[in-house]
Amino acid sequence: MSDIQDTLPAGANAVYTGFWHDWDRGKVLGATLTLKDRYAVALLAALAVLVTFAETDRAHWVSFIALGILVSQLVISKVVISKSLPTCGQWLPSEGNYTDTDFFYTNQELLLNETPAAESYVRSCYRRGGSQGILDCGKFASRFLEHQVEHQVSCPFDPKVCLPNSSSAFIMESSNITLSNLGINSKHGKSIALRRRSACAVVNATMFKTGVLTSRNASYLQENETETYFSFVKASSTGEDIEFSFRN
User: Fold this and answer.
1) Contacts of 128 (CB under 8 A, 6+ apart)
2) pLDDT in single tens digits along all 248 residues of the chain
3) pTM of the predicted model, to two decimals?
4) DSSP state letters, 1-47
5) 3-class SS at 221?
6) DSSP output for 51-73
7) CA 84 to CA 1: how far, in whole Å?
8) Dihedral pair phi/psi, residue 117, rounded to 5°
């Protein structure tokens, strides 16, 4: 995870330049060289000159054929491999106390910003055909992951926990997702896969409420603010409630 104060501009800085192997293209054709724009232009110009000289000199027809094959393999591709940067992973605010108001709001803002970004991508890019918005739908190795949704299934918990009834849950199940689908460059990228099945339901939150804080008993809360605590699970080691809070 990265500290928000230590982040660096990504963009072109996140692209690895040099030789690497694109395993999706196979053991032989996957040998790849990624160059910055100015170096790529210089390489193309040099190869063009060499091909011209080889073509005019009949004695170097072997070189001409070899250079012709090499040039035919040069493409302008959007497929690149990333390198590790401090901006990789989940962003967190600077070290601080979670009861500190500034720290809390900064952390919540970072988390909340991820939700509309994901929703925008799904609305714009999870439809077949062209992009439905201004987002770049080709920035991931796979534009979308195949999945199925089932509605009106049985509550995965005690029936009285689910709202509005015991058959109001729904299930999301993916197809087989390979490492290649996730953008992981590996020679086993197409042979190793995972599959996920998730059951979701609206629960009766009042059954799990453990307490409410106000500005009277919590100094970091502003007037008219409350923080409600819920516990849905217990720690396996101690048996104590693991609490989650919601502030409004």
Assistant:
1) none
2) 333 333 344 556 778 888 888 888 888 878 888 877 777 777 777 777 766 766 666 556 666 566 555 665 666 566 777 777 776 666 665 655 555 667 767 777 777 777 888 888 888 887 665 555 556 777 788 888 888 999 999 998 888 899 999 999 999 999 999 999 988 898 999 999 999 999 999 999 889 898 999 988 888 888 889 989 888 877 777 777 777 777 77
3) 0.60
4) -EEGGG----GGGGB--EEEE-GGG-TTTTEEEE--HHHHHHHHHHH
5) coil
6) HHHHHH-GGGHHHHHHHHHHHHT
7) 11
8) -65, -40
> Which residues contact residue 153 at a Cβ distance below 8 angstroms, ignoring those fewer than 6 apart?
167, 169, 170, 171, 199
Query: How many angstroms separate the CA atoms of 69 and 231, rounded?
Result: 65
DSSP 78-141: S---B---TTSS-EEPSS--TTSHHHHHHHHHHHHHHHHHHHHHHHHHSSSSS-SSSS-TTSSS
Token pair in block for residue 3: 């500290």
